[in-house]
Amino acid sequence: MYDSINNNVRSLYELQKSSFEYVQILGTLDTCACPQCALLDGALIKTRDAVVGKTVPPFHEGCRCCIVAFSVEMYNGEGEKTRFARDPLTRQGYKVPAQWTFLDWYSSLSDNQRSYFSPEVCAAIESQLKLRKDIKL
């Protein structure tokens, strides 16, 4: 965990010196994600307010989340932007749209693929998906 903390402290320090106003939390899109990290995936934090271990990862022992610089221009620029996901059944990696969060990725999976997640992750994700449907923006 200390390497993860040190890496994120260095990354955050460099981002705070840059012109990026926000950092984004990126979790891993696979069945090993914990409920906390699955729900925080995609969250935006003001760079000046970011605190490693509190508002940006690592959040717990074994946390695999990281932070990246975020700007609207990065998402609206040229070219197709993707991120990596791992199929729960085949364990093969594949690309999904960069703007997808863990919730979006989970929603794209079949019931059979979802059966590979822990009950805790499924319960957390399903409750958030229900909230998302109940709240119309």
| Portion in strands | 15-25%
Q: Radius of gyration, rounded?
A: 15 Å
Summed up, the domain count is 1
- List segments where confidence is low: pLDDT < 50 over at least 5 consecutive residues: none
Structural class: alpha+beta
Write the layout of secondary structure elements.
Layout: H1 2-17, E1 22-26, H2 35-40, E2 44-46, E3 66-70, H3 72-76, E4 82-86, E5 93-97, H4 102-108, H5 111-114, H6 119-134
Antiparallel strand pairs: 1-2, 1-3, 4-5
Descriptive notes:
The protein has 137 residues and is an alpha+beta fold. The longest helix is centred in the first third of the chain and has 16 residues. It starts with a helix and ends with a helix. The mean pLDDT is 86. A hairpin with a 6-residue loop joins strand 4 and strand 5. The protein is 39% helix and 17% strand. The protein has a three-stranded antiparallel sheet, covered by helices on one side. The chain has a two-stranded antiparallel sheet with strand order 4-5. The protein contains six helices and five strands. It is globular. The protein has one domain.
